[in-house]
Amino acid sequence: MVVCEGTNAVVSASTVAGAIYAWSGPNGFTSSLQTNNITNITTAAAGDYSVSIYKDGCWSSTATTTLVVNAKPVVSVDDNSPLCEHQTLNITSSTTSTVQTYVWTGPNGYTNNTSSVTIQDVNEADNQGAYTLTITDNNGCKSDVTSVWVVVNKYPDNIISLNNGPKCEGNDIQLDATNVFGASYSWTGPNGFTSNVRNPVIENVTTANSGAYTLVVTLDGSGDNDCNSAPVSTEVVVYANPVADAGQDDTTYQDKPLVLNGSGGATYLWSTGEYLSTTNIPNPVFISSAVGNVTKTLTVWDAATGCSDDDDVVITVLANTSNLGIPDLITPNGDGINDVWYIKYLENLDETYVINVYARGGALVMSTSNYGQNWTGTYKDKQLPDGAYWYAIELSSGIVYKGTLTIKR
Question: Can you give the pTM of this predicted structure?
Fold first, then answer.
């Protein structure tokens, strides 16, 4: 029996009622059936198939049939796709088998019975698509279907290029263009700009990036004949930023007002309102009770373009050591407001001190040389009566602060 690879074969023994069949064959084949259907045969199935039957305690002699499997032919194809419209399509085939027939199929009912395909003046509508080839060799065996997808590109047209500008300096400009499947992109622009990305991003732009950006879109053609679009351009506009000036770094003292000197824009905004009289003018008043460095950021805007710029000023607040801030009234009623006799700048002293508070008549009701800013008008854990009291704060340098202190609940 002779078959082609990939087809089916039947090996069968004569009928013996009540018999048991024992088959053996190539590639480990065994079976107990009278008739065996071998599907999708490979060349490994070629060879001798032997069968014996067993009945009434006796084995028959062995019968053998030979299966010949001819390998199916193998064919490959090559083409010059992708093409531009109006070029010539060439598809060639290659095989080591002796070919009896070629069967080509293609788009729009295309057929051909030669070893190659040649179609002149191709166009996308009629000639783009799958071309298949099946060959039959001199043994009558057919190859697997071999196919190739042919791409016929139109010359790109109706290309639109654009950008997300205008933008202010320091921002990013993104170019964009019509999405053409399978195309490549070539951008050129100011300052030697080039890109092969459809929608490239130009980061941190300056006014030097302003100008015309030109694009050519290309689809592959045969050989060196690519399908290029007509050049298209988009105009990029980059606005110059204003130059913010928050003024020179400066020094002041606790609770001493300092006028800031900002400039550079039509609209102003200082970062946060902390320590400032207002935030939307160039020269607000700064005042702070805290000692240390404070950084303030000024943002200015150009009224015409909306572009902005930032600048920082560092203000050093020094400790106030020239005098103490001594309240003359406390209201220790537990409302969290003015409950404690808080003496400003006491922590700034670099000398020892003694604080004494006296009632009318001279009775000492509070005395300390290490005040914790926590006295609420008590004496021996009992509230003192509302009224006027006298204080004396004596420094080791000889300076004495005296005055009245009113307690009112």
Answer: 0.54
